[in-house]
Recover the amino acids of this structure.
């Protein structure tokens, strides 16, 4: 089985700008820079045949490249407990356009639609038992004006997530270029996802 998601990877320069934000709170499991990304669509577990269909559908997406800027810091909470700390993304119509293209491509591969509203972000930390550090409010206020350098987005990526006791490892299966004309996807694993490894 393949646990898949589609995302925009971040350049090293932006990852370096995020690094100073990752610290100063107890109880936080900070994300490694290697797994930071902007999720376009979490897919979940599929078999090899569906993974192949997804790859082919994504490879047919034709969308323009664009520029992004990360900005602001916020959190997700449930039942009054903060479980995720994240950095947001400045308004970017072409990012929304790409997300819609990805959604349509996945529907053609019989992947169920995502019911949740799309809120692009980069996860910084997760809290197993909620954020109970008394400095959390001060941390949010101190970093609320964070703004990254603008960076170009010239591709998007199909990732396979491997779960383990030490956390998730994300394997890049295929990368798809963004531009105005026709193009072929660049396969990072030496072949289509379904044949990259045994299912």
């Amino acid at each position: 089985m393949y646990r898949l998601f589609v995302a925009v990877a971040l350049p090293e320069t932006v990852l370096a700008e995020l690094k100073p934000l990752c610290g100063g709170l107890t109880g936080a499991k900070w994300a490694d820079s290697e797994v930071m990304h902007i999720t376009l669509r979490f897919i979940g577990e599929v078999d090899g045949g569906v993974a192949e269909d997804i790859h082919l559908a994504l490879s047919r997406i034709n969308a323009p490249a664009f520029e992004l800027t990360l900005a602001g810091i916020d959190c997700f909470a449930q039942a009054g407990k903060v479980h995720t700390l994240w950095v947001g993304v400045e308004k970017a119509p072409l990012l929304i356009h790409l997300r819609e293209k990805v959604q349509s491509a996945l529907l053609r591969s019989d992947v169920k639609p995502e019911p949740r509203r799309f809120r692009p972000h980069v996860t910084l930390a997760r809290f197993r038992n909620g954020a109970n550090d008394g400095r959390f409010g001060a941390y949010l206020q101190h970093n609320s004006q964070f703004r990254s350098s603008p960076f170009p987005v010239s591709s998007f990526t199909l990732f396979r997530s491997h779960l383990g006791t030490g956390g998730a490892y994300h394997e890049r299966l295929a990368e798809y270029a963004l531009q105005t004309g026709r193009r072929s996807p660049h396969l990072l694993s030496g072949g289509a996802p379904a044949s990259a490894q045994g299912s």
Q: What stands out?
A: The CA atoms of residues 174 and 187 lie 4 Å apart.
